[in-house]
TrEMBL record:
<keyword id="KW-0479">Metal-binding</keyword>
<dbReference type="InterPro" id="IPR016473">
    <property type="entry name" value="dCMP_deaminase"/>
</dbReference>
<feature type="binding site">
    <location>
        <position position="77"/>
    </location>
    <ligand>
        <name>Zn(2+)</name>
    </ligand>
</feature>
<dbReference type="GO" id="GO:0008270">
    <property type="term" value="F:zinc ion binding"/>
</dbReference>
<dbReference type="GO" id="GO:0009165">
    <property type="term" value="P:nucleotide biosynthetic process"/>
</dbReference>
<keyword id="KW-0545">Nucleotide biosynthesis</keyword>
<comment type="similarity">
    <text>Belongs to the cytidine and deoxycytidylate deaminase family.</text>
</comment>
<feature type="domain" description="CMP/dCMP-type deaminase">
    <location>
        <begin position="8"/>
        <end position="145"/>
    </location>
</feature>
<dbReference type="GO" id="GO:0004132">
    <property type="term" value="F:dCMP deaminase activity"/>
</dbReference>
<dbReference type="GO" id="GO:0005737">
    <property type="term" value="C:cytoplasm"/>
</dbReference>
<feature type="binding site">
    <location>
        <position position="103"/>
    </location>
    <ligand>
        <name>Zn(2+)</name>
    </ligand>
</feature>
<keyword id="KW-0862">Zinc</keyword>
<dbReference type="InterPro" id="IPR035105">
    <property type="entry name" value="Deoxycytidylate_deaminase_dom"/>
</dbReference>
<keyword id="KW-0378">Hydrolase</keyword>
<feature type="active site" description="Proton donor">
    <location>
        <position position="79"/>
    </location>
</feature>
<dbReference type="Pfam" id="PF00383">
    <property type="entry name" value="dCMP_cyt_deam_1"/>
</dbReference>
<dbReference type="InterPro" id="IPR015517">
    <property type="entry name" value="dCMP_deaminase-rel"/>
</dbReference>
Length: 159
């Protein structure tokens, strides 16, 4: 008889997004994303990090101060990295699992690539203009978004 406590697709892909976030060097918000085809095949993953050639030991991780000395001008967002990491040609109709609701810039890229559904975990910046703009664009473009519903299963990885 088959195992009964296997995880569902949402838990599987959000789990991969969460594991990807563990690669992030951001000390305050690590983000992971996983892009999945219509038939539940993983197309790409990403996390927030400095662009290639921009050392994450040398570029700043600060949130405040002179804007040029904060991370915001430099860090490449998880969702954008997942899109850029994809080596295939077509992600039309795909879903993206992300640990943080995508900002307006990631949302533009998500829309332009033909992704049709966003499954997010945290929406901690819901009150910001960036996220309000994201939702406005997503609603206009007919892209659905829903918050991930935890299945209540703790998985410990001994790595
Ligand atoms: O769509 C998004 C929005 C943000 N991020 C990343 C960018 C930063 O590294 C953090 C946010 O840092 P805070 O200290 O919470 O402002 O999240 C992302 O990957 N995707
Ligand atoms: Zn973003």
């Amino acid at each position: 008889m088959k195992r009964k406590d296997y995880i569902n697709w949402d838990a599987y892909f959000m789990g991969i997004a969460l594991l990807s976030a563990e690669r992030s060097k951001d000390p305050s918000t690590s983000v992971g994303a996983c892009i999945v085809s219509m038939d539940n095949k993983i197309l790409s993953v990403g996390y927030n990090g400095m662009p290639i050639g921009c050392s994450d030991d040398e570029f700043p991780w600060n949130r405040e101060g002179n804007p040029l000395d904060t991370k915001y001008f430099y860090v490449c967002h998880a969702e954008l990295n997942a899109i850029l990491n994809y080596s295939g040609t077509d992600m039309k109709g795909a879903k993206i699992y992300t640990t943080l609701f995508p900002c307006n810039e990631c949302t533009k890229a998500i829309i332009q690539k033909g992704i049709k559904e966003i499954i997010y975990m945290s929406d901690k910046y819901a009150e910001t203009d960036s996220i309000k703009a994201s939702k406005r664009m997503l609603d206009a473009a007919g892209i659905s978004y829903r918050q991930y519903v935890p299945v209540g299963k703790d998985i410990t990885l001994s790595l």
